[in-house]
Amino acid sequence: MNYFKKILQFAIPYKRFAILNIICNVFYALFSTLSFLALIPVIQILFDKTKRVAVEPRYDGFGSLKDYVIDSFNYQVTQRVNEDEVSALLFVCGIVVLLFFLKNLFGYLAAFFITFLRNGVLKDVRNAIYDKILSLPVSYFSEKRKGDTISRITADVNEVQYSFLSILELIVREPLTIIFTITAMLIMSPTLTLFVFVFLPISGFIISLIGKKLKSQSDQAQQENGHFLSLVEETLSSLKIVKGFNAEDKFRDRFHDSTSRLKRILDSLINRQNLASPTSEFLGIFVIVIILWFGGNMVLVEGTLDGATFIAFMGLAYNILTPAKQISKATYSVKKGDAAAERIFQVLETESNITDAENAVKKEHFEEAIEIENINFRYEDENVLKNFSITVPKGSTVALVGQSGSGKSTIANLVTRFYDVNEGSIKIDGIDIRQMTKKSLRNLMGLVTQDSILFNDTIKNNVSLGKDGASDDEVIEALKIANAWEFVKDLPQGLDTNIGDSGNKLSGGQKQRLSIARAVLKNPPIMILDEATSALDTESERLVQKALENMMKNRTSIVIAHRLSTIQNADKIIVMQKGEIVEQGKHEELLAKRSVYQKLVEMQSFES
């Protein structure tokens, strides 16, 4: 229930709908009870002439209110019976229809108002998870399956809606219906009502025994749901490799195993849940039969209860069954919802270790240099970078080269503050980047990665991602600098052409040039190029290299290099090996040393 309270915090902005729902549910419960009570005088007056009231009753104060109301109703019915028994019957039927109409009207209005609360909470929970996803560091998602995160924002939130939020409708209506009904039953016959009091706790105890395993099974179901969504996501994003390696059967078996496990869990879970309704109904009917036997004796043998009251009492006793059944279902829902809410709050309550410092500086301009001073960094236990130090003066290009695993891309992750250093510092103009706001730091930088990360949107929207309100002319100018306008202008819809999921309608070189255009349009003073040409063929590389040269003019650049052509004109080349600097200098200087750099050049092995 702790998670239920946390979910309810999202309902605070919609409390007006909750209040209206409560008011409507009060009237629903009231008219639900009155609709059965109205049957008593009807049966008595129509079938027992001794119950008719010929003299109009007088009101003698609050103490006699109950008798006054009953006698007034009986008097009205009696008057009509004396005039015309058919019209009296129509009058009574009209009263019953009106009471049931009002009951159902307020039932609808209660559901109408709670809809806005439920859907509002659903929207806000989803927004909160998505906002949290955007605020969490990159490191968080390197350890998580994407499918599991998708499952939390979809299936788990839906489960919360169907479980936690659905019982908001029951919290007032069903308990009030039971309270009003039992109150009426106590007035009619305290002895018979005792049986109902015995029924409710017994029913609750039996139902709780059935539902003990629901939370753990629901948690297993949500985890397995996340697993199979991950398999779907991996299959869709890697379909060429799956087909190219004839691995369809392997992936099919993995997916079928996952869905089979999910089926077994859901079979058990749903069958337990389905047991709640028939169990509560059977227990209710069992008690009704006992009431029928015991009350029948009171009417036929003892004469302590009249028949009309007993018939209405039976109706009221059965009227308790539906809300009791709904409450038993709600018990199951809470257990399932608790498991889903727990998974939601695991995301929402995750602390981000990449946060803005208190009184963080908004750095708007880059003036002097980037200084990386004696940094150590590790993803897990072993240092990826060891006592690493370089200075990148404004306007210069520094290239990082080395074999795979030497720590080159890690530098890009640290300078952009996707990760924080373990020891040492990275400074821009003498200010530690941890003392700057993340937004202002990243505003100073443009990023072009090895994988061209594009979105299922138009070319214009992809290129203008870093600059709101960019005009067509500005986008076209950025595309020209990136050598991309030559192919964009020939597309059927030009800038408004949709490039498909991850830009899959374009070639690798075209996607990379759009990535460069995006960085150009942002127009930052610092460029981070992480293996920007490593995945390209020779012709595409030539075009992209030209685009990179255009982009780097008058800018400070850190280039993580894969191919010689990318870095031979750099102001300084840093040669890395196992997280440490082994050589540094210009291209010709390093070749003259005939050492590590020359071997890399000969091998053309500047890998990522």
UniProtKB/TrEMBL annotation:
Keyword Cell cycle: no
UniProt superkingdom: Bacteria
Domain ABC transmembrane type-1: 19-336
Keyword vocabulary terms for this entry: ATP-binding, Membrane, Nucleotide-binding, Transmembrane, Transmembrane helix, Transport
Ranges for domain ABC transporter: 370-603
Transmembrane segments: 20-47, 88-117, 170-188, 194-211, 282-301
Sections of the chain in a coiled coil: none
Cited PROSITE patterns: ABC_TM1F (PS50929), ABC_TRANSPORTER_1 (PS00211), ABC_TRANSPORTER_2 (PS50893)
UniProt subcellular location: Cell membrane
MF-aspect GO terms: ABC-type oligopeptide transporter activity; ATP binding; ATP hydrolysis activity
Annotated membrane topology: Multi-pass membrane protein
A Pfam cross-reference name: ABC_tran
This protein's name: ATP-binding cassette, subfamily B, MsbA
Lineage of the species this protein comes from: Bacteria, Pseudomonadati, Bacteroidota, Flavobacteriia, Flavobacteriales
